[in-house]
C-alpha cells in the first residue's frame, strides 16, 4: 500500500514535466510567425520604396486632404490644432489604405477610424432622438420625417411667437391708452 507522501511525490513530477513541454511547444509555434513577420516587413519595405507605391499614396493623400479642406463646417477654416490633427489623420489613413491592411499598424489605423465612425453615429442617433422628443409626434420617427416635421414645427412656432407678441403689444398698448382700437403696425 502506498503512503500519502509517496503518492504526492509521484504525482508532482508528472504535472511539472507537462508544463515546460507546453511552453516549449508554444515557443516553437511563435518563432515561425516571427520569422514570417520579418519577411513580410522586408517585402513591405521594398514596396514602399517603389515609384508606383509612391504614386498610389500621393493620389490617395491628395484625395484625403481635399476632403479635409472641403469637409469643414462652412463657417471658415477650423482652428489650427483641429486642422493639423485632421491633416495628420488624413495622411495616416491614406498611408494605411495604401498598405492595404497587410501590417498591424495599418489595420490599427483603419479600425480606429471605424471606431470613431461608429462613435459619431452613436452621437448622431442620440441627437436625432433628442430632436424627435422636442417635436410633438416624432418620438420614434426616422430622421427624414423628423427633419421635415421639425422645419414645419419651427415655422409654426415662429408664427406663434409673432402672433403672441402682437397680441401682448395690443393688450399692453390698449390698457395704457384706454382706447379699444387696435394700433396700426
Automatic annotation (TrEMBL):
What InterPro entries does the annotation carry? bHLH_AtIBH1-like (IPR044549), bHLH_dom (IPR011598), HLH_DNA-bd_sf (IPR036638), IBH1-like (IPR044660), IBH1_N (IPR059002)
Query: GO cellular-component terms in the record?
Result: nucleus
Q: Where is this region: Disordered?
A: 1-38, 68-88
One GO molecular function term of this record is: transcription cis-regulatory region binding
**Alphabetized UniProt keyword annotations:** Nucleus, Transcription, Transcription regulation
Q: Which residues form a coiled coil?
A: none
Residue ranges annotated for the BHLH domain, each copy included: 108-157
Give the Polar residues compositional bias ranges.
1-18
Does Cytoplasm count among this protein's keywords?
no
Q: Which Pfam families match?
A: IBH1_N
Sequence ranges of Basic residues compositional bias: 21-30
GO term, biological process aspect, one: regulation of DNA-templated transcription
**Domain of life of the organism encoding this protein:** Eukaryota
Q: What is this protein called?
A: BHLH domain-containing protein
Q: Which organism is it from?
A: Morus notabilis
